[in-house]
Each structure stands twice: as structure tokens, then as C-alpha cells.
Amino acid sequence: MLTAVVVLLAAWSKPIIENIRFEKPVSKSVSFAVYKSNNYASKIYSDASAKLSVTIVKVRGNNRNIVWQKTYDARLLNQYPTLADAMSQKVVINNVDDRHDKLEVIYTLIYSSNGSNVQLEDGTVITRGMKEGKLFINI
Fold first, then answer.
1. Average pLDDT over residues 38-49
2. Which of 14, 40, 69, 132 matches a 20 to 30 Å C-alpha distance to 110?
3. Taking the domains of the chain in order of start, what are their residue ranges?
């Protein structure tokens, strides 16, 4: 009787054990480029500026953890580089469980002009199977 139970238990648990995959954590990278999409030479833009904040959040289920964040000081719109000379950065996030984690890359732009502010947000998500994300942030 005990032998039969052991055999049945072994037969039943084999498919479960085969379906459990032990995956190693991976590294994922996020590359982004910041540039102006206009020359902003008109006098109306002479006092207009933009401040940029970029945040990378690791998400697993309902848990959200900021894993990287950078804020760029405000600068006049015409001081931002063109696409050819874009400010670029590559960030590598280690120890990502590709099966359960996703990375949200969120950027916030705050435009200021004559005492008024406008805030814009956008971003991208790096999900399972993706090793790299690219973001082009035009000012």
C-alpha cells in the first residue's frame, strides 16, 4: 500500500516539477536620448525653459520600486541639443526576474514660461523577453 502511494505521488509530482523553471535574474538596459525638436529661435521662447525627470520603476504584481531616477536641471529650450547632438544615457538594471518583473520608464517634462507651468508625462514599458528599451525624449 505504501509503495503504491509513493508511486502515485511521484507520478503526480513529476509534471509539477517539470513545469517549475528556475530562471536566473537578468540585466536589462534602458537607453534614452534628449533633444529639442524645434530651434526655439523665436522671441516668444526667449524665457521658456524645460526641466526633465526620468524614473525607472521595477514592477512585480502590485509592488512598485524605484530602481533609478535622474532629474535634469531646467534650461532654456534653445539650449537643448539637436537630435544629432542629443544628450544620451544608457542605464543597466541588474537582478530583474524576466518572468515576473517589468520595468516602467517614465519621464516628466515641466515647461515654464512667464510664470506658467505645463507638465507632460510619457514613457515606455520593458516586459518579459525584452532586454533593452529605447526612449527618445524631444523637448
1. 94
2. 132
3. 25-138
CA–CA separation, 116 vs 56, rounded Å? 28
Cα torsion 84, 27, 98, 129: sign: positive
Cβ count near 82 (within 10 Å) = 11
Question: Do 32 and 70 touch, CB atoms closer than 8 A?
Answer: no
In a 10 Å sphere around its CB, with 0-12 CB exposed, 13-18 middle and 19+ buried, how is residue 126 labelled? buried
Q: Is the pLDDT of residue 9 over 70?
A: no
User: Cell digits for 102?
Assistant: 517589468
Could you give phi then psi for residue 122, rounded to 5 degrees? -160, 180
Q: What is the pTM of this model?
A: 0.81
Cβ atoms of residues 28 and 130 within 8 Å = yes
Name every residue whose Cβ is closer than 8 Å to that of residue 133 and which is 6 or more positions away in sequence. 28, 29, 30, 31, 103, 105, 124, 125, 126
Fold of 25-138: Immunoglobulin-like (2.60.40)
